[in-house]
Each structure stands twice: as C-alpha cells, then as structure tokens.
Amino acid sequence: MNVVIWARVSSREQKEGYSIDAQLRGTRDRARASGWTVLREFSVAESAKRGAERNAFNEMIAWVKANAKRENIRAILSHKLDRVCRNTRDAVRMQELEDQYGVSLAFVENQFGPGPAGALSFNVMAAVAQYYSDNLRTEVLKGMEERCRQGWQHGLASYGYMNCSDDKDEPIQPHPQKSRGVVRAFELYASGRHTFETLADQLAGEGYTYQPSNPRFHRTALSRILRNRIYVGDIRWGDRYYTGKHRPLVDQRTFTMCQEILDGKVRRTTKQLNMPLSGGLFTCQHCGAMITGERIRRKLKGGGVRVHDYYRCANNYPDADHPSVRWRADDLEDAIHADLETIRIPDDELADWFRMALQATFKNIGDVQREQRIAQKKRLAEIEAMQERLLNAYLAGTIDEATLAAKQTQLRDESAAVAATLATCGDLGPEDVRVALGVFEFAQNAAQIWRGSKMPQKREILESVSLNRMLGDVTLVVEKRKPFDVFAERPLVTSSLGDKTPVELFIAEVRT
User: Fold this and answer.
1) What pLDDT, on a 0 to 100 scale, did the predictor assign at position 373?
2) Domain containing 42: what range?
3) Where do the H-state alpha helices sit in 206-347?
C-alpha cells in the first residue's frame, strides 16, 4: 500500500523535547512494519513563520488529491490523530478525502476500528483536538494581554523599535536608525506644512528610509506611524491602552498636534504644490531614488513673476557619475503622451479587424468550453448510472463483494478525475467580451484621454497602464502592465509572439 507521511510539532512540544525527527522515525517504522511504501513526507514545525503550518497542510492535501489515482495512494500516515486534525473542520476534510479519493488515515498510536464504533471514536478525538486548539488560543491571548498590562508590547516591536530578547530589563528598545526617522516624521508633520506626499518627499530627501525593499515612506506607513500611541509611551490591547515601560520617542504635545492635523482640526499653514506626477510615481533610472516636484518662481523685469515646474531626482547626495535628472513639467507630460501612443494601433483598418477578431475568438473559446462541459457532465451521468447498476448486480448476487469494492473504487476515481476536468473547463460569457473590448478601446484612446484629463486623473491613467516608471537624464522608461504590453510590442506588425496570435495573447492577458 502506498502512503504519505504527515508530521507536525507545536512550539510547546519543541520546548519539552519533542521533535519532527522523532515523529518521522515512528511513522517510518510503522510503514516498514506494515509493508507500506512511503511516497512522500510532509512536515512542519509551528515555530516557523506565521501561516506556514496551514500552508504546508494545504500543500499536502492538494498533492494527495492530484496524485491519489496516479500513485495509488491509500492512506495518510501520522503519529496520532491530533497531528492531522486540529479541529473538526480538518476532520471533515479528511473524511471527504476518503470518500472522494479513497485515501484514509493511519496512525502510529491511535487505532480506529471499522463501523459506527470506530467513527464515534474518531469524532470524539477530533472534538478533543478542537477543544485543545481553542483552549490554547485562549491561553495565548491571556498571556499576550498580561504582557501588555506589565508594560511591554507583545510580538514584533513597532516600526522605530527593535526586540532585544537578551535584555530582560528592556526587551524593546529604540532602533538606532529607524527611531530617528519616526521622530523626524512627527516633527515635520506637526509643523502643518506637509501632506503625506510632501512629507514622504522630505524624508526621502533627508536620507531617511522606511524598508530596504521599499525605501520611501508610503501613505499607509505614515498614517500608521502618526496614529500609533506607542511612540508616546502607550500600548494598545483591543480597545484599551496600557502605560508602557519602553522609552517614548515623541512628546505628548507633538503627538497631539499631529492628531489634530490628521483630524482636520488644524489647517496646514502653506498651500501645497500641485505636482501630481511626484509622490512615488516615478523613480530615478540611475540611483532608484524617487522623483519629486519642484516649483521655481522668477521675477520678471516688468514686475511680474514667471513660474516653472520641474521634476527631479530626490537624491540629495548623488554619486559623482550621477547625471542631472531634471525635467520640465511640460516635457515630461509630452513624453508620457508619446509613450501612451505606443499602445494604440495606429491603423484604423487594423483596429477594426482586431475588434472583430476579438469577438470571434471569444465566441470560439466559449463554444469549445461549452462542448467540454457537456461532454464531462454526460460522462458523470454515465458513471452514476454504472455505479447504480453495479450495486444492483451485487444485491442480485451476480458479483461478489471484492468485485464490487474494486469496481466502486475505479468508478469513484474516474468520477473525481472527470469532476476535476469539469472544474477547469471555464465559462466565458458576454461580460468577459465587454471587459476585453473596453480594455482595447481604452488602449486606443489612452493618449487622447490623457490630454483631456485633469492632473489627478492623469496619475490614475499612468498607474493603471504601467507598473514601473523611471526617468533618466533624457529618457522615459515605462514598463507596461498586462495586457497593454501586448500593444506596446506592436503585435500586428511583428512575428515575435510564438504560437499565439495577437488576439489570443491579448485575451490570455486580460483574463489574468
């Protein structure tokens, strides 16, 4: 008999000396003694990162379902029941696995007999596992709340602080670099001269970084930081706050001023620049820094003032070989307009042909999917009829029990395979056609829409069409989103799309 091994160990059990290796050794011995063949082993320790245990369990279930028939898998072997079923939901999933795929459970320590008595024992132990899991969660939450009552934040320290497990007197301490960025963010915002966008620009310009993978402070991060009372010495648990023992980073007056600005009780003292193409929309092609807006006013001899808007690299300490990245606002808008023109099919006849081909291809795909669904449903009905005839033959004494069991297993496996195929047939409808045509029409008119839109809408157009946008000293480099990248490659006049036609490639990308 072919089996799959599953092993799991909790954080508490690891502290008490239990290990994954011990479970694997026990299950391997049981398989060897029973003459079973182990096809694959799955194991996980709950001390792994959050969610890893559930991911590994779901991976095991998916693999067993996909390979049950091909590999003739007959059981999942574990040390005992609570290793596999942590709650009644898991028990139901295991029962469904046996009913649909013929894969049962086997254990080293727990044994369940056949019939109602065995089912009752299984359900009772599954309920006990559910109770243990629920009780453990309650105890963990109580421990977390008690830690807050004692003045220390539970879990990972908030941004600006760091966990110091080796220091029992001060387990949470200010981070040497990140804490300065937090303090500076509160100081700048409390001045009333910044929005989140200009605050992020200012912090980036002064060299403060948020994370290595995301150096710039984004809006969500700034809002979360400026609202967090931990920086004035409070710790939140649910709806309550406790006085913390960690070192505050911000005084109460500064924190209160920031809250009043966030709530709109205090107006900002200066008018903000209308530079919508800054704020993280573009990065520097040479150093990766954000592109920020800049407004310069020059007095004219006649007494007037001329205003010039620029977009430049926010890196205030560039390398010696870093070129000057500074664009006039009008030049940048012209470059963006020209880039949006690349996703338009310039020939009207070709565009009309693409529209008709798009609708025809959708119809063909829909017809094929419909025929596949009809065929698979017909086969399912035939299998059900065969199962009924098989049972009648057994009741009539025409076949014996062994033949009945073997045929039922064969039909059950085929039924599961047909059902899986039916689930992947797809179901294209009129709404899919409308979406695809809408995307195509938007691509055809994106440049024109850009010219006629206000600045906030222009930003939305850019973000919907492209992923990464970089400015060099003289070039604009834009990475298109799917499916706009198909048109940017001019698919109707090139032959570099492999086996797919331009219409098929466009449909594939729209559907993803």
Assistant:
1) 81
2) 2-145
3) 219-227, 252-262, 329-341
